[in-house]
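ok here's Membrane protein, seq below lol
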Amino acid sequence: MTDSSRAHRNLATAMAAMGTLHMVAPKPFDAIVPERLPGSARTWTYLSGVAELACAAAVAYPRTRRAGALATAGLMLAVYPANIKMARDWRHRALPLRAAAYGRLPFQAPLIGWALHVARKAR
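and the structure came out like this:
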């Protein structure tokens, strides 16, 4: 298995796992939906889960891999405000939780880079 095939398989798997998690355990995701978004937090949680599952499927399929990887990068950028909200909301929590919330912020850049790498390698 080449590095690029591992990269797209791992990206598709990660996105499918996160999308599934949004569906089966939505409550933690509801808490980080920015209040300024219209509608219910649960709706946004489910919508983002569906988007992650769609990105996973698109990345997994060779004909849509490039578009799926670009959509994944865009989605990771779009959900960044939720990560900022989580870090702000968790600033008074215990150190391990606070570290996890703050640690998510710089981690988004490598995720976006990973998706862009898969897009570049797609045929």
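fwiw The radius of gyration is 15 Å. kinda neat tbh
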